[in-house]
């Protein structure tokens, strides 16, 4: 097998495309021939030694992938060689093969393309858990989505639309805002050239959004939170801008608002039954055409450094996918 190996987490330039021994699945494990893997923001942080999870060195990065089961370990039921699966494992995806716990593999329905499957679990599970579980989003409510053109942002637009919400998508360029409109956003804000607070006030007639979905953090957070509606819910999803913001807590008091943490990975570990039910519902929505990953580009696995460069340059709309051609 071949894999992008991180022996020293100093950045993309330290990754090496290497030959590694083929691993055999142990008890409860599957070996998956990887057909496609997607890039998530934590993939960049982890090879820079900036993520909260720091795997033992050396490691193969790649959080999320899809492929074909090649072998099963002892005690595995429900999977056999030839089955197609997607998996979200934290590491291992930027390779030609990976050994994963069977419990982390999601069986794919017939006709689910590998590129879509590789870009599905993280963004849609995060956004559904955030909007439907943590925020309790209701039909007719207004949702402000920051970083709306990114992977989780485009998923959030689709999920909020399926839930019957009104969507204000905020992104950094006119082109990204136009793409958000195509995906179902009712209104957009270009926070690269417009005042976020002024535009929110205009678009909500001074009321503010009921739910704010924030995977960006940084200097947008306080401006957005100051605009939230009475009894609003502010979803802390991530910090793609790099800076973890500090919010004046008196604002929560004055607005009767909630600051709600969103950590889908921990939810999946602590509440596996509810997570499984959610993933089943998301797969049904995909089959019904309500949701579909937005793919920015599909590149060969060997071109992973170029994919990371595009991600670092904030040029991505939706998800980047790298593939192994068979």
From TrEMBL:
Protein's name in the database: NADPH2:quinone reductase
CDD domains: QOR1
Key words, A-Z: Oxidoreductase
Name of one Pfam family that matches: ADH_N
Protein species of origin: Roseateles terrae
Enzyme kind, highest EC tier: oxidoreductase
Presence of the UniProt keyword Oxidoreductase in the record: yes
InterPro entries (alphabetical): ADH-like_C, ADH-like_N, ER, GroES-like_sf, NAD(P)-bd_dom_sf, Quin_OxRdtase/zeta-crystal_CS, Zn-ADH-like_protein
Enzyme Commission code: 1.6.5.5
GO MF annotations, alphabetized: quinone reductase (NADPH) activity
All copies of domain Enoyl reductase (ER), residue ranges: 11-322
